[in-house]
Amino acid sequence: MKFAKLFTFILGTVIISATVNAQEKTVEVGGAPMYPSKNIVENAVNSKDHTTLVAAVKAAGLVETLQGAGPFTVFAPTNEAFDKLPKGAVDNLLKPENKATLTKVLTYHVVAGRYDSKAIAALIKAGNGKATLKTVSGGELMLSMKGSGLVITDEKGNMAMVTIKDVYQSNGVIHVIDTVVMPK
């Protein structure tokens, strides 16, 4: 009898949770819905397009940070973006002895604050076509528009395009990018 009540409670909780999630406005990234009620890490682990990023975040020990209150704006490179790096670069960064470098590269993709596309567009407009955001690593990303697309330029002059914008999270917002940006 107790088992039946527990099972009913658990099943009811699952149904309620599924109903709540079904009512949320989601964006699909990497074949999975991204729920605004979940944090950056809880959503990212479900995207098949971000397995390299998730592995890197784990290797750098940044999971707890990105599950924190934030808010954060994350420019999230896809697996294809990581594949553009020189052969062996990702494997090298994931080595324990390179944790500090990996952390610097990853935190260069994170900005403190919630900058959705409207906020970024306002910054770009106020800056006469360009804006700069300071990253958590201490570097800077330059933002500009190319037609209707948002372009991110890193400190080395490399450019990334935002391919999916405004993926809202409980602790920030994610913009999917097609190239890994690198600090000086």
From TrEMBL:
It comes from the Bacteria. The lineage of its organism: Bacteria, Pseudomonadati, Bacteroidota, Chitinophagia, Chitinophagales. This is Fasciclin domain-containing protein. It comes from Panacibacter microcysteis. One of its GO terms (cellular component) is extracellular space. Residues 1-22 form the signal peptide. InterPro entries: Adhesion/Biosynth-related, FAS1_dom_sf, FAS1_domain. Keywords: Signal. Residues 37-181 form the FAS1 domain. The keyword Flavoprotein does not apply. SMART domains: FAS1.
